[in-house]
Description:
This protein is an alpha+beta fold. 15% of the residues lie in helices and 27% in strands.
Amino acid sequence: xxxxxxxxxxxxxxxxxxxxxxxxxxxxxxxxxxxxxxxxxxxxxxxxxxxxxxxxxxxxxxxxxxxxxxxxxxxxxxxxxxxxxxxxxxxxxxxxxxxxxxxxxxxxxxxxxxxxxxxxxxxxxxxxxxxxxxxxxxxxxxxxxxxxxxxxxxxxxxxxxxxxxxxxxxxxxxxxxxxxxxxxxxxxxxxxxxxxxxxxxxxxxxxxxxxxxxxxxxxxxxxxxxxxxxxxxxxxxxxxxxxxxxxxxxxxxxxxxxxxxxxxxxxxxxxxxxxxxxxxxxxxxxxxxxxxxxxxxxxxxxxxxxxxxxxxxxxxxxxxxxxxxxxxxxxxxxxxxxxxxxxxxx
Length: 346
């Protein structure tokens, strides 16, 4: 069963300086506690969080489109962090969710918060400049940002919270973003930063968010168990429920034309001799086609033909998968999605 983020209430009142369109339905994230607890996470509700907001106690004007990740730049206790962000900061509330060093999740606000500041959505997520507060669920991670390691229970909670937010709200992994990405043009923010499995020396210690989004995507698309095999000669075909193998959307703009190699998910055995694929092209910059093949020279025959600006899909069988992967070519700039529907083994 899908659990909605929250409910819809009539507009109470807003200040003249913060006027909203009329009619206006207020959206509160008061379903978050149930969503996160249902996933087995420990949730601590800060009193009155369901109706706490930066906007004169009014909620979102639409369901949030993004999840934004920050660190607190503090070294105090979880209680002090939560009290400051909820009650004592001149910019309160600072975020919707605080994740403590032990992995506990504190819910602080059910409406938009003051946590992102000025910035730009350069990845094409549909957020107006300097307006991320109105679009995002904000997560603050307890960390000083100057070299303090992130404990594994805390990092695990960050991942799991993001997964549950995306599942509940229909947000794509590509819209899980960091404060430093939102402020990339100015370089004024570095969070999240510091020792964890996502720390990237090439980014000055900031988290590699492509790697983080990849893990979120994998959590949302776990390995599957194949159905009973259908006997063939001489191979055996294993039909499976469609498994999302590759999706370029979480990683930003559509991919440019050219050849690339996609690896197969770990759920597909290493000794697979062929795979059955469903290939989709979408958001195409112009009419074109997609070709899929095991490896080596690209064949002349396409498997998907698509019109400009729209999407198209088709099935394909790749025989002789090469090093547990396959080659794919897109003729014009587009996003590529590949699902595996079955495989053959000797």
